[in-house]
Structure formats: C-alpha cells, structure tokens
C-alpha cells in the first residue's frame, strides 16, 4: 500500500507529542494523506506556529495546536473535547507523547518515575477514555499508541521507561478487546532506536551513567541490539502507521508492530 494512495481526506487526527521528532513526522505524514491535524506538545511557540501553518500551506488541511499538558488530566480531556467541538469528529488518535530519564534504579528520582509513567502511559489512558465514546458514536475509529522495543524487552538504567512502555502495550491489548465490535482498532507501534532529540539526550545520559563515550553508547549500547546496525527512520514508522489507520488495517486489533531492526528476533 503506497502512502500516496491512502486518502484520509476529511478525517481528523490528534497526535500527542507532535511538535518535534517522531510525532511531528507522523503528523506530517497524516496531513500528507489529507487528514486534518491537531498538534500537541512542548516547544517554542513561534516554531510550533510555523509547523502548524506549514501543514496547512503544504497539504491543504486544517491544522490546530492544543497546549494540553500530558501531566494534567483535565487538560487532556479538553484536548479531545476541543477537537470534537471544532471538527465534529475524531477519527485517529496517536498517543506519542513521551519522556525519558536514564539512571540506576536506586538513583532514579521519585519525581522522574512519576513523570515518566504519567506522560508515557497514563496520558494515553486519559486520551483513550475520552476518544472512545466519540468513535463509538461514529461507528469507526483508529487508535495507535507509540510504544517501544522497550515494551517487549528491558535495558538497564531505564526502569521507569521500560515499565511505562510495557504498560502501554498492555493497555493497547485490553482496550482493543473492549472496542473490537465497535469497528475501532487499537494497536501499537514499537520502534527501535530512532535518531530523535530524545535519543540524542539519551546518548549523553547513558554515556554519563555508564562512564563511556558517546560513540561507544551508539555502537555498543543502542545499535548493538539492532542487527541492522542502523537507526530506524521516521518514514519506516509512518509506513506502519498508515497501514494501521487504513481500511486494510481493520482486522488488526491489539497488535504491537515491531519496527526495530530485528532486535526482538534474537
């Protein structure tokens, strides 16, 4: 299925954590297929406005920005409610917001644990619980949670992140069972290492935690687990996403599609 042939014209997609990195790439890909986009995330307001305006200019869609803090349930509720109020529908929900902190478990600040669980896992619960009734009423919906290879396997110094991503895959499976008869699909995409700002920060943090160089982190820690020895690209993740939100993905429920360079094949 070519991305160029996927027509999402008129559909509305909310993408959390979409002002940079993977989320931005996925939002741009959906807009390229004709979907209206609601952006969400942190960053410089002028840069976010340039991104929003660029989506409208380049793809002829409506693009909005909502500044909901993924730590605040009421703001997450307003993100969904505002989308439905503006467009009268919500077809696609992408839960991509995420943060990371690398440290030994005994050195992991309790506040960092709480933040990572809240943003990487609990925020998806809140978006989903408000999106599902809208999708049930419409008779169709697509929910995709951006998990991680770390939702399937662990690495040291990432206790909170690994716990959150395992939980996100469990949430994906459970909700998929609950809404399968409503023509709503709930799935996850589990990337390996993608060269984003988050990964760049992890390189520095992991180098400090392990007492090794940045080059050694990339070669011996990150890409050591990926047989391809290559970072996953954002276009590869977009390919998986477009399948899941298309009609061809209608019978895929509760899956976590691995896009991780063969990591889990070992």
From TrEMBL:
It holds the Pfam family adh_short. InterPro entries: 3-OHbutyrate_DH, KR_dom, NAD(P)-bd_dom_sf, Sc_DH/Rdtase_CS, SDR, SDR_fam. Keywords: Oxidoreductase. GO terms for biological process: monocarboxylic acid metabolic process. The keyword Repeat does not apply. Its EC number is 1.1.1.30. One of its GO terms (molecular function) is 3-hydroxybutyrate dehydrogenase activity. Residues 11-183 form the Ketoreductase domain. Belongs to the short-chain dehydrogenases/reductases (SDR) family. This is 3-hydroxybutyrate dehydrogenase. It comes from Marinicauda pacifica. The lineage of its organism: Bacteria, Pseudomonadati, Pseudomonadota, Alphaproteobacteria, Maricaulales.
